[in-house]
Amino acid sequence: MARILRGEIYWAELNPVRGHEQAGLRPVLVISNDFLNERSGTIIAMAITSQVQLAGFPLTLQLTSVQLPKPSWVKINQVRTLSVERLQRRIGRIREEELSKIIEGLFELVG
Question: Which residue in 79, 87, 94, 109 is deepest, having the highest Cβ count within 10 Å?
Fold first, then answer.
């Protein structure tokens, strides 16, 4: 697989899951740094959904800087460590400003 970079979006197979975790084949946003992505065989990612989200920031953020098939939201509270083997096709990469806002939301949730 090609180099996986922070801020990229990939299709990923998230099954099997438990409870309220996002399931199935869906886009994920890579938030782990490039060093970890390159050397560990895993990435840290956030699930993306096309379902309209009533909960706003910091739980979700609508993506505007990358072209996805439908309007989409990053579920900032749905952080997972994934094997790179779960990743499929690369979709694109978000702008650094949008990534910074998402990381800010994560810090707000765990701060």
Answer: 94
